[in-house]
Amino acid sequence: MALSQPLTQPFRLAGLELPPQTVLLCRLLALTILFTWHPRQIQTPFLPFLPGLDELPPVLFQRTLQAALVLGSLAILFTRRIRLAAFVTGSALLLAVLSSRAYYGNNKTFTGLLLVLAACADLRLIRWQFALLYFGAGLNKALDPDWHSGQFFHNWAGARLANPLYLWALPHLPTLPQIVCWSTIAIELALVPLMLLRRFFWPAIWISALFQCGLLLFTGDTFNLFFFASQIALLAFVEWPANPVTVIWDGECGFCAQTKGWMQRFDWDGILHWVPQQSNIGDRWGLSRATLKDAMYSVSGTNIRHGYSAWRAMVVWLPILWYTALAAVVLAPRPAVVALLLFLTPLSNPVGEAVYRWVARNRHRFGDQTCALPAPPKG
Amino acid sequence: MAGNAGFILGCALLAAQCGAIAYARFTPLRYFCWAPFDQQTKYLIEVYIGDEGLTEFQIQKRYRRPAQGFDNRSAHHLFDLIERAEKKFEPAGRSRVTVLYSINGGRQLTWRYPNP
Description:
The complex is a heterodimer.
Chain A: H1 20-35, H2 58-78, H3 82-99, H4 106-119, H5 123-142, H6 145-149, H7 151-160, H8 164-169, H9 176-196, H10 201-219, H11 226-232, E1 245-249, H12 254-266, E2 272-276, H13 289-294, E3 297-300, E4 303-306, H14 307-315, H15 319-331, H16 333-344, H17 349-361
Parallel strand pairs in A: 1-2
Antiparallel strand pairs in A: 1-3, 3-4
Chain B: H1 3-23, E1 41-49, E2 52-53, H2 56-63, E3 68-71, H3 75-89, E4 95-103, E5 109-113
Antiparallel strand pairs in B: 1-2, 1-3, 1-4, 4-5
């Protein structure tokens, strides 16, 4: 595959042949493949699902797939031919799965399918794929007697993982294995309609994300590529802002200007539209100058946020956050997931708001430039 | 890939998985039907070629999985893999394989190749 037409700004999401969230999805999957160095897991053909693949020169076949994975992932990151690159990378993964019963795994199949479906340039396909995955998983469990009785979870958590939390809780709640098994079945099957109906996309995103994060925190395992792929695929349910997010900031504050400059450095697609409060733009939404003096505001569609919530709502649209989060989860899965959950959920609001208010009150002390905010009275 | 062709390819991939999910209701195998981590199988494999027993290392090399351990999918994936490997590597039928296994902590069972 030719690595032609390199991007002048390799981290941009907009202006490519796929929608921004599909580009981000492909980039994050490509980074997962590279960060986990997945190509080293690719094997020579072994008892393949597709007859004849084991007739090919085994080492050449293996090296070709490895090269396709690496080059395809790099092309997703750095070239404009992102559809072709996603198709090649996904196909290489699927071919590796079909070529070896020893390599076969749901996580690799799912990742490969996501990339191929992303190349098909229709987000519905990715949503249907995810719903189908949960349907298959829920159905199989719902028909398994060991899931009805809780025996699966009791053996897995107790005997296999020797999970201290489970072993501590079991004597207090003997029905815990059944509760966990039936809850899992209910969640997986409930996610199917939620993932198919647009008005339920946000509940679907949160339930799926928390379910997979819970599994990771309980086991400490990312299940090879599965945790990453299952979280990244949720991008298919996100509505990317059609217009830039308006950020109303204090144009007379040096520290605020520095913060703005810092954030713009990572806003490669210009998704944040910065407007100083002094321009009276707040009038559009009934926000007075006095109100705007206290905190930064962000406006996206009908959502108006201020302070820490506004800052968080801005940061989540910057891809750098997700690239960093991905690297953190690869390096230290449990701490990184805890930090992400704290950041993305209202759990961090009390501390976040307190820190934001303190910084906002003292912003005249930071930065190189003079801030118009008067110093607070002493005493 | 044109828009329509991409959509048709995507739908074909999804349809194939629907077929695999339906097919899984008629077989103990669970390939491509999204049944990960639905079963925990503890197993021990013993292999004899003629009168000679294979070491754990040789078993690992032969099946590309440890001679004993856990499998996170249907136990029948293990049997399927062994059966296919023996038919390919030992077509003369000199191999005898015994798998001692238990599913989800249940009682110990035995699977043999060739099947009695």
